[in-house]
Amino acid sequence: MINEIFEFLSYGFVLRALLVGVLISVCAALLGTNLVLKRFSSLGDGLSHVGFGASALGVSFGVAPLYIAIPAVLLAAFFLLRLNKNGKIKGDAAIALVSSSALAIGITAAKLSHGMNVDINNFMFGSIYTISGQDVVISVALCAVVLILFSLFYNKLFAVTFDESFSFATGIKVSRYNTLLACLTAVTVVIGMRMMGALLISSLLVFPSLSSGRIFRSYRGVILGALLVSVSAFLIGIALSFVFSTPPGAAVVIANLVFFLIFWAIGAIKSRLGRKR
Length: 277
Description:
The structure is a single chain. This protein has 277 residues and is an all-alpha fold. The protein has 13 helices and no strands. The termini are far apart. The mean pLDDT is 84.
Protein backbone atom coordinates (compact mmCIF):
# COMPACT_ATOMS: atom_id res chain seq x y z
CA MET A 1 0.00 0.00 0.00
CA ILE A 2 2.81 2.41 0.93
CA ASN A 3 4.70 1.54 -2.24
CA GLU A 4 1.57 2.26 -4.27
CA ILE A 5 1.22 5.67 -2.62
CA PHE A 6 4.86 6.57 -3.36
CA GLU A 7 4.39 5.41 -6.95
CA PHE A 8 1.23 7.52 -7.16
CA LEU A 9 3.11 10.59 -5.91
CA SER A 10 5.94 10.06 -8.37
CA TYR A 11 3.83 11.15 -11.35
CA GLY A 12 4.06 14.78 -12.40
CA PHE A 13 0.36 15.09 -13.18
CA VAL A 14 -0.47 13.90 -9.65
CA LEU A 15 1.75 16.53 -8.05
CA ARG A 16 0.16 19.21 -10.24
CA ALA A 17 -3.29 18.01 -9.20
CA LEU A 18 -2.37 18.04 -5.51
CA LEU A 19 -0.91 21.56 -5.67
CA VAL A 20 -3.91 23.06 -7.45
CA GLY A 21 -6.40 21.01 -5.45
CA VAL A 22 -5.08 22.12 -2.06
CA LEU A 23 -5.05 25.78 -3.12
CA ILE A 24 -8.61 25.57 -4.46
CA SER A 25 -9.75 23.79 -1.29
CA VAL A 26 -8.31 26.60 0.84
CA CYS A 27 -9.94 29.33 -1.26
CA ALA A 28 -13.28 27.52 -1.31
CA ALA A 29 -13.27 27.04 2.46
CA LEU A 30 -12.58 30.73 3.11
CA LEU A 31 -15.17 32.06 0.69
CA GLY A 32 -17.72 29.34 1.38
CA THR A 33 -17.84 30.30 5.05
CA ASN A 34 -18.93 33.82 4.14
CA LEU A 35 -21.45 32.60 1.57
CA VAL A 36 -23.04 30.12 3.98
CA LEU A 37 -23.25 32.67 6.79
CA LYS A 38 -24.83 35.19 4.39
CA ARG A 39 -27.24 32.46 3.20
CA PHE A 40 -26.05 32.96 -0.34
CA SER A 41 -24.41 29.58 -0.83
CA SER A 42 -26.41 28.89 -4.00
CA LEU A 43 -24.28 31.56 -5.72
CA GLY A 44 -21.49 29.03 -6.18
CA ASP A 45 -23.80 26.58 -7.91
CA GLY A 46 -25.16 29.27 -10.20
CA LEU A 47 -21.73 30.57 -11.15
CA SER A 48 -20.48 27.05 -11.87
CA HIS A 49 -23.22 26.61 -14.47
CA VAL A 50 -22.29 29.94 -16.03
CA GLY A 51 -18.66 28.81 -16.04
CA PHE A 52 -19.58 25.59 -17.81
CA GLY A 53 -21.60 27.45 -20.43
CA ALA A 54 -18.77 29.88 -21.07
CA SER A 55 -16.18 27.08 -21.21
CA ALA A 56 -18.32 25.16 -23.69
CA LEU A 57 -18.54 28.24 -25.88
CA GLY A 58 -14.77 28.68 -25.67
CA VAL A 59 -14.12 25.08 -26.73
CA SER A 60 -16.65 25.41 -29.53
CA PHE A 61 -14.89 28.47 -30.95
CA GLY A 62 -11.38 27.13 -30.38
CA VAL A 63 -10.55 29.55 -27.55
CA ALA A 64 -8.93 28.53 -24.27
CA PRO A 65 -11.89 27.95 -21.92
CA LEU A 66 -10.39 29.93 -19.01
CA TYR A 67 -10.09 33.05 -21.17
CA ILE A 68 -13.84 32.94 -21.78
CA ALA A 69 -15.03 31.52 -18.47
CA ILE A 70 -13.30 33.95 -16.09
CA PRO A 71 -14.70 37.21 -17.53
CA ALA A 72 -18.10 35.59 -18.13
CA VAL A 73 -18.41 34.34 -14.55
CA LEU A 74 -17.18 37.65 -13.12
CA LEU A 75 -19.80 39.46 -15.18
CA ALA A 76 -22.46 36.99 -14.05
CA ALA A 77 -21.51 37.48 -10.40
CA PHE A 78 -21.81 41.26 -10.72
CA PHE A 79 -25.09 40.93 -12.63
CA LEU A 80 -26.59 38.59 -10.04
CA LEU A 81 -25.72 40.96 -7.22
CA ARG A 82 -27.31 43.90 -9.03
CA LEU A 83 -30.36 41.85 -9.97
CA ASN A 84 -30.77 40.59 -6.42
CA LYS A 85 -30.47 44.10 -4.99
CA ASN A 86 -32.48 46.22 -7.41
CA GLY A 87 -34.47 43.87 -9.62
CA LYS A 88 -37.84 42.25 -9.16
CA ILE A 89 -36.28 38.79 -9.43
CA LYS A 90 -34.65 37.99 -6.11
CA GLY A 91 -32.22 35.49 -4.58
CA ASP A 92 -32.44 31.89 -5.69
CA ALA A 93 -34.83 32.71 -8.54
CA ALA A 94 -32.29 35.04 -10.14
CA ILE A 95 -29.51 32.47 -9.76
CA ALA A 96 -31.66 29.71 -11.23
CA LEU A 97 -32.62 31.91 -14.18
CA VAL A 98 -29.04 32.84 -15.06
CA SER A 99 -27.45 29.45 -14.37
CA SER A 100 -29.97 27.34 -16.29
CA SER A 101 -29.81 29.72 -19.26
CA ALA A 102 -26.00 29.62 -19.35
CA LEU A 103 -25.97 25.84 -19.06
CA ALA A 104 -28.45 25.44 -21.91
CA ILE A 105 -26.51 27.82 -24.15
CA GLY A 106 -23.24 26.00 -23.48
CA ILE A 107 -24.65 22.54 -24.16
CA THR A 108 -26.36 23.70 -27.35
CA ALA A 109 -23.22 25.43 -28.65
CA ALA A 110 -21.10 22.35 -27.94
CA LYS A 111 -23.55 20.02 -29.63
CA LEU A 112 -23.86 22.18 -32.74
CA SER A 113 -20.11 22.59 -33.16
CA HIS A 114 -18.23 19.45 -32.16
CA GLY A 115 -20.58 17.45 -29.99
CA MET A 116 -20.04 16.73 -26.31
CA ASN A 117 -16.31 16.07 -26.57
CA VAL A 118 -13.83 15.19 -23.83
CA ASP A 119 -13.03 18.81 -22.92
CA ILE A 120 -16.68 19.62 -22.28
CA ASN A 121 -17.14 16.47 -20.21
CA ASN A 122 -14.10 17.42 -18.14
CA PHE A 123 -15.69 20.75 -17.25
CA MET A 124 -19.02 19.08 -16.52
CA PHE A 125 -17.73 16.28 -14.29
CA GLY A 126 -14.18 17.34 -13.44
CA SER A 127 -10.83 15.83 -14.38
CA ILE A 128 -8.09 17.18 -12.15
CA TYR A 129 -5.45 14.80 -13.53
CA THR A 130 -5.66 16.44 -16.96
CA ILE A 131 -4.45 19.82 -15.68
CA SER A 132 -1.63 21.10 -17.87
CA GLY A 133 1.41 23.09 -16.80
CA GLN A 134 -0.18 26.27 -18.13
CA ASP A 135 -3.35 25.56 -16.16
CA VAL A 136 -1.26 25.15 -13.01
CA VAL A 137 0.43 28.52 -13.49
CA ILE A 138 -2.89 30.28 -14.08
CA SER A 139 -4.59 28.48 -11.19
CA VAL A 140 -1.79 29.20 -8.71
CA ALA A 141 -1.69 32.87 -9.73
CA LEU A 142 -5.46 33.28 -9.40
CA CYS A 143 -5.56 31.43 -6.07
CA ALA A 144 -2.79 33.71 -4.79
CA VAL A 145 -4.84 36.76 -5.79
CA VAL A 146 -7.92 35.36 -4.02
CA LEU A 147 -5.99 34.63 -0.82
CA ILE A 148 -4.23 38.00 -0.79
CA LEU A 149 -7.43 39.98 -1.33
CA PHE A 150 -9.33 37.92 1.26
CA SER A 151 -6.55 38.54 3.80
CA LEU A 152 -6.37 42.25 3.07
CA PHE A 153 -10.11 42.79 3.44
CA TYR A 154 -10.75 40.14 6.09
CA ASN A 155 -12.23 42.57 8.63
CA LYS A 156 -14.52 44.25 6.09
CA LEU A 157 -15.78 40.92 4.75
CA PHE A 158 -16.40 39.78 8.32
CA ALA A 159 -18.46 42.92 9.00
CA VAL A 160 -20.68 42.72 5.90
CA THR A 161 -21.17 38.99 6.41
CA PHE A 162 -22.74 39.35 9.85
CA ASP A 163 -24.55 42.70 9.73
CA GLU A 164 -24.84 44.68 6.52
CA SER A 165 -27.00 47.40 8.09
CA PHE A 166 -24.54 48.09 10.89
CA SER A 167 -21.62 47.96 8.46
CA PHE A 168 -23.31 50.51 6.23
CA ALA A 169 -24.00 52.75 9.23
CA THR A 170 -20.32 52.69 10.20
CA GLY A 171 -19.28 53.83 6.72
CA ILE A 172 -18.30 50.53 5.14
CA LYS A 173 -19.07 50.29 1.43
CA VAL A 174 -21.27 47.22 1.72
CA SER A 175 -21.99 46.83 -1.99
CA ARG A 176 -18.29 47.07 -2.79
CA TYR A 177 -17.35 44.23 -0.46
CA ASN A 178 -20.30 42.11 -1.51
CA THR A 179 -19.06 42.52 -5.06
CA LEU A 180 -15.54 41.60 -3.98
CA LEU A 181 -16.83 38.43 -2.28
CA ALA A 182 -18.84 37.49 -5.38
CA CYS A 183 -15.87 38.09 -7.70
CA LEU A 184 -13.49 36.05 -5.55
CA THR A 185 -16.08 33.27 -5.50
CA ALA A 186 -16.39 33.50 -9.28
CA VAL A 187 -12.64 33.07 -9.77
CA THR A 188 -12.53 30.14 -7.34
CA VAL A 189 -15.44 28.44 -9.09
CA VAL A 190 -13.83 28.75 -12.51
CA ILE A 191 -10.45 27.33 -11.51
CA GLY A 192 -12.14 24.68 -9.35
CA MET A 193 -14.29 23.37 -12.19
CA ARG A 194 -11.37 21.42 -13.63
CA MET A 195 -11.06 19.59 -10.31
CA MET A 196 -14.69 19.06 -9.30
CA GLY A 197 -16.69 19.79 -12.44
CA ALA A 198 -19.56 22.24 -12.80
CA LEU A 199 -21.95 19.80 -11.14
CA LEU A 200 -19.91 19.36 -7.94
CA ILE A 201 -17.83 22.51 -7.36
CA SER A 202 -20.51 24.15 -5.18
CA SER A 203 -20.11 21.31 -2.67
CA LEU A 204 -16.54 22.46 -2.06
CA LEU A 205 -17.90 25.86 -1.02
CA VAL A 206 -20.69 24.58 1.22
CA PHE A 207 -19.68 21.31 2.93
CA PRO A 208 -16.56 22.44 4.86
CA SER A 209 -18.21 25.48 6.46
CA LEU A 210 -21.36 23.52 7.30
CA SER A 211 -19.26 20.81 8.94
CA SER A 212 -17.15 23.29 10.88
CA GLY A 213 -20.23 25.22 12.00
CA ARG A 214 -21.55 22.13 13.79
CA ILE A 215 -18.72 22.39 16.33
CA PHE A 216 -17.26 25.89 16.27
CA ARG A 217 -19.22 29.05 17.04
CA SER A 218 -16.82 31.93 16.37
CA TYR A 219 -16.19 33.24 12.87
CA ARG A 220 -12.48 32.53 13.07
CA GLY A 221 -13.13 29.09 14.51
CA VAL A 222 -15.52 28.20 11.69
CA ILE A 223 -13.00 29.39 9.07
CA LEU A 224 -10.10 27.42 10.59
CA GLY A 225 -12.28 24.33 10.93
CA ALA A 226 -13.49 24.69 7.36
CA LEU A 227 -9.89 24.96 6.13
CA LEU A 228 -8.96 21.77 7.97
CA VAL A 229 -12.01 19.89 6.67
CA SER A 230 -11.64 21.13 3.09
CA VAL A 231 -7.98 20.22 2.68
CA SER A 232 -8.35 16.91 4.54
CA ALA A 233 -11.39 15.89 2.48
CA PHE A 234 -9.55 16.72 -0.74
CA LEU A 235 -6.48 14.66 0.16
CA ILE A 236 -8.55 11.74 1.40
CA GLY A 237 -10.80 11.92 -1.66
CA ILE A 238 -7.83 11.92 -4.03
CA ALA A 239 -6.32 8.93 -2.22
CA LEU A 240 -9.59 7.01 -2.31
CA SER A 241 -10.10 7.79 -5.99
CA PHE A 242 -6.67 6.30 -6.72
CA VAL A 243 -7.22 3.17 -4.61
CA PHE A 244 -10.72 2.42 -5.88
CA SER A 245 -10.39 3.95 -9.39
CA THR A 246 -13.31 6.34 -8.89
CA PRO A 247 -13.76 9.90 -10.25
CA PRO A 248 -11.69 12.29 -8.07
CA GLY A 249 -14.39 14.96 -7.82
CA ALA A 250 -17.02 12.52 -6.61
CA ALA A 251 -14.58 10.99 -4.11
CA VAL A 252 -13.81 14.43 -2.65
CA VAL A 253 -17.53 15.16 -2.23
CA ILE A 254 -18.09 11.81 -0.50
CA ALA A 255 -15.18 12.56 1.85
CA ASN A 256 -16.76 15.94 2.63
CA LEU A 257 -20.08 14.23 3.31
CA VAL A 258 -18.43 11.83 5.77
CA PHE A 259 -16.77 14.77 7.55
CA PHE A 260 -20.13 16.53 7.77
CA LEU A 261 -21.81 13.48 9.31
CA ILE A 262 -18.98 13.08 11.83
CA PHE A 263 -19.05 16.76 12.80
CA TRP A 264 -22.84 16.70 12.96
CA ALA A 265 -22.71 13.76 15.37
CA ILE A 266 -20.06 15.47 17.53
CA GLY A 267 -22.10 18.69 17.56
CA ALA A 268 -25.24 16.80 18.58
CA ILE A 269 -23.38 15.08 21.42
CA LYS A 270 -21.94 18.39 22.64
CA SER A 271 -25.36 20.01 22.53
CA ARG A 272 -26.94 17.15 24.49
CA LEU A 273 -24.20 17.21 27.13
CA GLY A 274 -24.58 20.98 27.42
CA ARG A 275 -28.31 20.68 28.10
CA LYS A 276 -27.73 18.06 30.82
CA ARG A 277 -25.46 20.47 32.65
